[in-house]
Amino acid sequence: xxxxxxxxxxxxxxxxxxxxxxxxxxxxxxxxxxxxxxxxxxxxxxxxxxxxxxxxxxxxxxxxxxxxxxxxxxxxxxxxxxxxxxxxxxxxxxxxxxxxxxxxxxxxxxxxxxxxxxxxxxxxxxxxxxxxxxxxxxxxxxxxxxxxxxxxxxxxxxxxxxxxxxxxxxxxxxxxxxxxxxxxxxxxxxxxxxxxxxxxxxxxxxxxxxxxxxxxxxxxxxxxxxxxxxxxxxxxxxxxxxxxxxxxxxxxxxxxxxxxxxxxxxxxxxxxxxxxxxxxxxxxxxxxxxxxxxxxxxxxxxxxxxxxxxxxxxxxxxxxxxxxxxxxxxxxxxxxxxxxxxx
Amino acid sequence: xxxxxxxxxxxxxxxxxxxxxxxxxxxxxxxxxxxxxxxxxxxxxxxxxxxxxxxxxxxxxxxxxxxxxxxxxxxxxxxxxxxxxxxxxxxxxxxxxxxxxxxxxxxxxxxxxxxxxxxxxxxxxxxxxxxxxxxxxxxxxxxxxxxxxxxxxxxxxxxxxxxxxxxxxxxxxxxxxxxxxxxxxxxxxxxxxxxxxxxxxxxxxxxxxxxxxxxxxxxxxxxxxxxxxxxxxxxxxxxxxxxxxxxxxxxxxxxxxxxxxxxxxxxxxxxxxxxxxxxxxxxxxxxxxxxxxxxxxxxxxxxxxxxxxxxxxxxxxxxxxxxxxxxxxxxxxxxxxxxxxxxxxxxxxxxxxxxxxxxxxxxxxxxxxxxxxxxxxxxxxxxxxxxxxxxxxxxxxxxxxxxxxxxxxxxxxxxxxxxxxxxxxxxxxxxxxxxxxxxxxxxxxxxxxxxxxxxxxxxxxxxxxxxxxxxxxxxxxxxxxxxxxxxxxxxxxxxxxxxxxxxxxxxxxxxxxxxxxxxxxxxxxxxxxxxxxxxxxxxxxxxxxxxxxxxxxxxxxxxxxxxxxxxxxxxxxxxxxxxxxxxxxxxxxxxxxxxxxxxxxxxxxxxxxxxxxxxxxxxxxxxxxxxxxxx
Amino acid sequence: xxxxxxxxxxxxxxxxxxxxxxxxxxxxxxxxxxxxxxxxxxxxxxxxxxxxxxxxxxxxxxxxxxxxxxxxxxxxxxxxxxxxxxxxxxxxxxxxxxxxxxxxxxxxxxxxxxxxxxx
Amino acid sequence: xxxxxxxxxxxxxxxxxxxxxxxxxxxxxxxxxxxxxxxxxxxxxxxxxxxxxxxxxxxxxxxxxxxxxxxxxxxxxxxxxxxxxxxxxxxxxxxxxxxxxxxxxxxxxxxxxxxxxxxxxxxxxxxxxxxxxxxxxxxxxxxxxxxxxxxxxxxxxxxxxxxxxxxxxxxxxxxxxxxxxxxxxxxxxxxxxxxxxxxxxxxxxxxxxxxxxxxxxxxxxxxxxxxxxxxxxxxxxxxxxxxxxxxxxxxxxxxxxxxxxxxxxxxxxxxxxxxxxxxxxxxxxxxxxxxxxxxxxxxxxxxxxxxxxxxxxxxxxxxxxxxxxxxxxxxxxxxxxxxxxxxxxxxxxxxxx
Lengths: 343, 631, 119, 353
Prior knowledge:
The complex is a heterotetramer. By secondary structure, chain A is α/β, with parallel strands linked by helices. Chain A has 2 domains: 7-111 and 273-342, FAD/NAD(P)-binding domain (3-Layer(bba) Sandwich), CATH 3.50.50.60; 117-269, FAD/NAD(P)-binding domain (3-Layer(bba) Sandwich), CATH 3.50.50.60. Helices cover 27% and strands 28% of the residues of chain A. In chain A, the strands form 6 sheets. In chain A, strands 5-2-1-9-20 form a 5-stranded parallel β-sheet, covered by helices on one side. In chain A, strands 11-18-12-13-14 form a 5-stranded parallel β-sheet. In chain A, strand 3 (49-50) and strand 4 (55-56) form a beta hairpin. Chain B is 58% helix and 5% strand. Chain B has helices at residues 7-31, 34-44, 47-61, 64-69, 71-98, 106-110, 112-115, 123-151, 166-193, 200-208, 213-234, 242-254, 265-273, 279-283, 285-288, 297-306, 311-315, 322-326, 333-343, 353-368, 399-411, 429-433, 437-454, 464-473, 483-493, 521-530, 557-571, 584-591, 601-607, 619-630; strands at residues 387-390, 416-418, 458-461, 479-482, 504-507, 532-534, 578-581, 597-600. A 4-stranded parallel β-sheet of chain B has the order 2-1-3-4. Chain D has 16 helices and 8 strands. Chain D has helices at residues 3-12, 28-33, 35-48, 64-68, 74-91, 101-116, 118-132, 145-151, 153-158, 181-184, 200-207, 227-230, 235-249, 262-279, 295-302, 320-326; strands spanning 22-25, 53-54, 95-98, 141-144, 174-178, 211-212, 256-259, 292-294. In chain D, the strands form 2 sheets. In chain D, strands 2-1-3-4 form a 4-stranded parallel β-sheet. Chain D has a 4-stranded parallel β-sheet with strand order 6-5-7-8, sandwiched between helices. In chain D, strand 7 (256-259), helix 14 and strand 8 form a beta-alpha-beta unit. The longest helix of chain D is centred in the N-terminal third of the chain and has 18 residues, at 74-91. Chain A binds chain C through residues 206, 217-218, 221-222, 225, 227-228, 230, 247, 250, 252-260, and chain C through 17-22, 33, 37, 40-41, 43-44, 63-64, 67-68, 70-71, 73, 96. Strand 17 (255-261) of chain A pairs parallel with strand 1 of chain C, so a sheet runs across the interface.
């Protein structure tokens, strides 16, 4: 008798989910890819260019779209996986909208949510004009127009690092890893787009963890004249000219510093996604103190959930860049296939 | 006949340049310091005068130094200078001897043929005419080389030459025209009258055969006179002013005047004595390794002469001293650059002669009212020692050198005190190299105080930078020794027992130790004692700078790396086991530039020290060491 | 006048410790950056300060000085820059290849020019 | 500026303010320097709004100035505050209305401490009982007096005789609001609108027709700072802080400053005088100062109270031009006359005087 085709549900259609679905489909496994948005692609859909080489994000999007254009993959959009449970060897996933999906295994690839910048009230996001997030700036890059709300061209832009990361005041002690290099990348892009515009990065530490990140940081200073001030911005306000006034300690000078900005970019960090957190709660998947999914083993089991047949891929376990997400996702597929074979 | 109008351009030019030279020399003489005036006066009536005459003959006329460096270039210079000199001398003799009057005005000698066209048809006069023609050929051959050099510098072995200003170009053109126009003028005149030597006579005959020579000749006499006149008029504002000024320079130098540390008439004479020959550019490592071709001494001197803003040029020099070594005129290029650095930055606008002295005055005023930069330095407690060891700032970044020195001194039983073990105060030379002598003096005073209080008889330093300044700018009772000298002394005394290392090594002369302080032999003696020292190209006085020099303020780390790689490449061409230097700065710089192991001389010696005898080992191991040491 | 009144009150208004980037004079920074572009590369590791010969004797920090140049704190700089001995140790230590000695030299020069209204 | 953004935050930071039956605790600074303000508060609540406000003459200072001046230990101040609660309990009141922002901060700090460290509450009960024989119930709510005016701001607006409007131009007055640091910076949840964008005074100003100025140093401390002011040699810090605020608000040409903290009102008023004396600088037009009013005074003016009855003539920066702008006719002859017709002392060197 011919062996029944295996079926895997992938919860989340971002970078991790798409890569996982593609890899599984290639191996002849039937995949149901459940995505909450209109289209798969996740946060990458908003991104203009990627660090460290500033390649267009579209190139990676194209790759991922191609990856899931496979007859074995069924994409369900505007849907989330609400609960997962075991029924014998089978896994039953309750989807939003009340339907159910049965499968042999499930990969959680629910990704991350960007930190809601409103929560750092002192920065005035949503209150003051010209306070935007890194994601908003990326949209501006897509339109090739970086301007203030009144349409004028900014002459000084400040990037505020660690917004919603490494900050117990918003209950996030973790580092989101990618914001530093994102800020460097965006700072360079601003300087290229607006050569007259002064650019400042306000940082606590520069965490250039990936290949060519440090080189990019150096380039930003050497070639693009991006300025770095070490200190966490404490508050922002506006003056009578509707310019932002920020206060920060210049920790290297050991003195408070006050500066006017035309545009303030909040480098928002990564948090566990809400659908991911819901799924964890309903399905008994354990989470860590950083609220991301806790893997079975930190070093050699970062794709395993501790529950048979459920695997993790990508940023639902911790902040990651795209490179690491794709690797992590492939590893999750490997774990899944091994599990399917052992059944 | 003497009232020919065409002679006037020459006459005017000649009188102008004579009067100008006298006036200029007088101004220079007057602005010399009292001591230098005395030196010059004494020199004029003593041996220095004879030395100068000899040197002028050997250098200004024969160009011996250029000959040594490059025979073709030497011949070119010699033929033009010596040839012209002879032409003038013999021309004057000819005019005085054969002319209708004795003691003629100069024009009479210069335009002798015009005034005496029939002369020299036979007898002694004819032979003399051949001689004069020979001199002209001699000059013209040099001129031919000059033209070739101008357009194809490589053919003369010159990699780089200086750029000319437009006045230089006009003067050069007129200089080039002098001798061909004389040839043609004399040729036409001789042709008409059937006189002349083997050259002018034959050329004249040939030309007259198809040209109306009598009509053409005056044009060439005019051209000859005009070329001479133009050249003389332009002389003071062009590089060719070096020809008369060099004579003054030689007198001054032989009288014992030196550049010293501030701007003086002697500095000015030196800037005008530069011929912009470009030899300094060829030897400059910044040119050959780092592709920087606009800051060499020739440009620096030219900027000084023309009173341009040369702040960038002044700062951008390794101060290695290679150009000083090769300068055919013997200009003290390093000291002049230091003087300029001491002047500080000057306004971008062109400085008037008077303003330059104004700057000097301002500097003197600052010196009269000194401000303290290092008042935070606390005088140290007195501590007695026979031998003081001063590692210096840079050696603290090469702790292996310190460890080696400690081992060596302990092994030799030297009772020493490590003066800056806990981190001392800079020796002051880096400040001096940046032109900040006043500040340097504060540090020198601080260190001197410690050295005097210690009562030390010997001050040993492992850093050539410190060594140079200790020797030249400190007033000390203690004998200053570079560690290579000191180790050599220990070996010679027999207090240091060393083994022989079977290694092939090369030695690099650090700039401040070799060229800067004349220490070439001691390090070589030490190295040869413990290892096989191989020769390297460009050693001793032409040793290469490592590129890390503190003398350069503005050179980027990338360019430094290029210089270091080039120098290290040259030094290690023979693939030695190690590259030995005697300077912590050179060691650090070379270490990044080569795969070859780079060691300080002290480290090499420390390796050759007998291993300490351990109790647990058998006696034979100690014997082995002794055997090796004996061998 | 303010001093006399202060005596009457027994206290005077304190000066702001804050660096006001919008009113500070950054001409010296421009002067230094133009003449020594490697200045930009400093990422404040403090290696120079750790190695510093003068820093062993006085409160002198090239790392801090770089920050003061960038922020236009001229008065602080004027005192600070004079403490350097120009020994060049920092040059050998700097991981970013900043031409530290020239930064000091150009800063001193820039300040002198600023004081003479030449900037 | 996006008003909807602030509304979002205000919606998040709302607190329970009781409707009636308050146990009122007075402020040391306010009853000394702005005695008319506390009087006006009681009158507004009792007469205009018909509320029940109880005062016990036996209540004392909270000792907050001593506490922040490092002379009163935390245990002591807890016991003093517990005694106030005991007085309220004995009188049958469960809602505390606090006149002073320092006291308000002390109360919130103590309540939060008791919540997180119940043993300190037990210890305080014991201390109070040993010292006075009293017992107490922890109050149900604590409100700052400005919270209560905030709650009834629209009611006051409905009864308004005057508005925060320039009667000549019809334009709203430009008002600077200053919130005492101890109102919500320590515990944002105790303040209406939180710590970054407190709504308590803005709500009043907008209800009564004024325009609020959001200037860069809006959040900055007035400079009181207890130790900064209490030690004479340190007063330069205190003065500097106020000056920083004035310089920051100056370009907006504010008509008045409203403060909800007695200390702030006092310092921002007195320091304008000091700065003028020291450096000859004032922050209004033509050498005028910016009047600093308490929210009770502003509420009183809106309701048509006589400014001289509220003691506004004893501010260093006088409000005569402001009153004229609002159309309030205050009888200049009565300015320094007591109710019995005797003359009151007339201060020298008044600004806008």
